Amino acid sequence: MKFVLASYGTRGDIEPSVVVARELQRRGHDVVMAVPPDLISFTESAGLETVSYGLDTKTWLDVYRNFWTFFFHTFWKVREIRTMWRQMWELSDECWAQMNTTLMSAAQGADVLFAGQSYQEPAANVAEYHDIPLVTLHHIPMRPNGQLVTILPSRLGRAAMKAFDWVSWRLNKKVEDAQRRELRLPKASSPSPQRIAERRSLEIQGYDSVCFPGLATEWAKWNGLRPFVGSLTMAMTQEADDEVASWIAGGTPPIFFGFGSMPVESPSAALEMIGSACAELGERALIGAGWSDFGGAQLPEHVKVVGAVNYATVFPACRAVVHHGGSGTTAASLRAGVPTLILSMDANQTLWGGQVKKLKVGTTRRFSTTTRESLVADLRRILVSDYVDRARELAAGMTKPGESAVAAADAMERFAQARCSA
């Protein structure tokens, strides 16, 4: 069978789709990936045929990050927020149009079209046009449910998510209407998530159900169309792994700090804050640089800065993990069985932070409001035995990476075969 997998975002957003694509290809299927131009080298190095999909990730990432930082920090500056909002949506509309062009070509003759968490709407329209089954992947439960919005009762949380879907549809209505006209499809009369569900699409949940107690029961009515497969990760070895393992072995287990593809505005200030907080606590700090430039700084003896590392081997050797709350990094820290502190930078990361706090395996706050004093207090809180024990208990109930890849591919094959024989 031919599977076309479209995925947009940073490397952490793309990696779960790559995991599924490689497993499908290993089984002998014809697989094509569609990813942002600046991540084509990543997917091609994984042995996958790849086409360009949307704009470069870095084109919009700064605008996206700045909007959310500004929104949470200076929400009263309406004019500036409105300008950033317009810039963000102009880039989004341009991305949408390019995605439509790419998928119209790539999906010809495909048996299944797969869409990662971002920009499922244009992919769903193309699948409808070609009359082929759609599979979506979610790194967090994005369909209306009563378990995600931790600050609200279940009924209100579910209603808030439905309202969010409706607002998102209205915001994207102009560009979606244009796409559907081009495809000669009727104008949509409901939000895309509702239409995706009505088409009986397969919606793979790329996280563990134990991370959202009660969700599997709530979604049992979907009769297997929303399977929980666990987090999908390549767990790739990195050049720095041996060096990092040696450094860790040379002292007490460190606390890992990393912000992935969300660069911090002032690396020097972040470095000073982390170093000072860990010194007060008598802890060592291992900092994953990610997209932030920590080069040239004088490092105290208890601090080490590294590039990319294999989270699957490094995190279990640490006392705790502090990060931005990306879905992949969160899954890795939870799988490691160590306490987690999420210093979020956008809305989705805030949701993961709330869930980690609800599970009592860590805590959270906005990165923009974090100080040396708050960092010390948060770390003291999560390093106690209660948090450590709960983190280990949660990890014991999570799937292994290899199991997740097999489960996702199995679900897609069953779905495709059922649709082809229907």
Descriptive tags:
Rossmann fold; six-stranded parallel β-sheet; 2 domains; 422 residues
Would you mind describing this structure in some detail?
- It is a single chain.
- With 422 residues, the protein is of the alpha/beta class.
- It has two domains: 2-63 and 91-231 and 400-421, Rossmann fold (3-Layer(aba) Sandwich); 241-396, Glycogen Phosphorylase B (Rossmann fold, 3-Layer(aba) Sandwich).
- The chain contains 16 helices and twelve strands.
- The chain has helices at residues 11-26, 40-45, 57-73, 78-106, 120-130, 154-182, 192-198, 215-218, 241-249, 267-281, 311-314, 327-335, 347-359, 372-382, 385-396, 401-421, and strands at 2-6, 30-35, 49-52, 112-115, 134-138, 202-205, 255-258, 285-288, 303-306, 320-323, 340-344, 362-366.
- It has a six-stranded parallel sheet with strand order 3-2-1-4-5-6, with helices on both faces. Strands 9-8-7-10-11-12 form a six-stranded parallel sheet, sandwiched between helices.
- Strand 2, helix 2 and strand 3 form a beta-alpha-beta unit.
- Helix 3 (57-73) packs antiparallel against helix 4, helix 4 packs across helix 6 and helix 10 packs across helix 14 (372-382).
- The longest helix is centred in the first third of the chain and has 29 residues, at 78-106.
- It is globular, with a radius of gyration of 21 Å.
- It starts with a strand and ends with a helix.
